[in-house]
Amino acid sequence: MAARTGTGRQMNISPGMRVDTVKGTPARRTSAWHVAGLVALVFVAACSREPPATGGEQIRPVKYTRVTARDAQRRRVFSGAAEADEQTDISFKVPGTLRERPVQVGDRVAAGDLLGALDSRDFEVAVREAEAQLARALAELRNSQANYERLRALYENDNVSQSELSSARAGAESAQAQVRVARQSLANARLQASYTKINATDACEVARTYVKVNENVASGQPVVQLNCGACPDVRVSVPETRIGAINPGRDASVVFAALGDKQFPAVVDEVGVAVSSESRAFSVVVKVTADCSLIRSGMAADVEFRIGNGDQPEQLEIPWVAVGEDRRGRFVYRLEMIDTTLAIARRQAIETGDITESGVVVTSGLAVGDRIATAGVRRLADGMKVKLYDDAP
Hints:
Elements: E1 2-4, E2 10-12, E3 17-19, E4 26-28, H1 32-48, E5 60-62, E6 64-66, E7 68-70, E8 74-83, E9 86-91, E10 96-100, E11 108-109, E12 114-118, H2 121-156, H3 162-194, E13 197-199, E14 204-209, E15 216-217, E16 222-228, E17 233-239, E18 251-256, E19 263-275, E20 281-288, E21 300-307, E22 315-318, E23 324-326, E24 329-337, E25 342-349, E26 351-355, E27 360-364, E28 371-373, E29 385-388
Parallel strand pairs: 5-29
Antiparallel strand pairs: 1-2, 3-4, 6-28, 7-22, 8-17, 8-21, 9-16, 10-12, 10-15, 11-14, 12-13, 14-16, 17-20, 18-19, 18-21, 19-20, 22-27, 23-24, 24-25, 25-29, 26-27
Helix pairs in contact: 2-3
């Protein structure tokens, strides 16, 4: 086939060629195998490139808490003060002048240790007088018995009358009675002399001293106060609306302001039966049962009682922020520990009960000690790996 150009020249056009209408020059059509080759080159080049980095496994951080038990009993706290288990004022049974008091406040004394002594000279004189009276009575007894024996021998020989013998026998019996009285007087004098000293009857601590040396002391006047017993008591006042729930033997716990937040175990020892006219409350005494070496009489204390129905089972309580809810119901994410910091979040359906001041009561689905997520719950999914915050409880 022949075509005429703009210059008047003719050119032959063979099959497979086209005419460039702009320049008037022929261009060869790209064949199919040429296109396939280009596609292959592009594919090889793409495959030779390295895949883009996708990064490591995403681990979401969460906070968590442990499921705790909420006691069915209610706690009530009452204020009071510590007092010695046995607090005793020691005094003399006889009056006198204090000559010796070897103990000071804070001293610990053992049984039999001397606490105080009076001037005993007057009592020693009384003892000597009683001894002399006994000696005189014994002498009169010997004389009377000898006279009676002599007259009895004469009576047997009819040398004395019956009346003389009876008088001698009465004199001997009277002398015997005088000896008994003298012996009793001596014993009393010695007992009075022993009262000029007071001794500790048990291992105790000196809590207070009332009298100084050389002061006159009356009979029964306190000289030394002792605190005895292994552990002190704590006395509190309980209002009449609560006293019915407190019985002897009930457990309690005591916190002393001077000893920090440490709780000391105690048990109710005494429950008052009469209301105080001043406070309109009943006196309750609890006895600290252990670890009481640092407790001193007079320390301010708070005593906590558990009041309520102790037969009810414990209830599980969790914070509200840990609870999620969807069309299938309420749930939490329970954490299955992988190691000390990593865990798997598992969706756990729960049933809830009463709402409390600190959260919600869980009636089923959890157990005491379970770890549950409390932060980031809305962005968790079942089976997701999570990392626990270092400051988690």
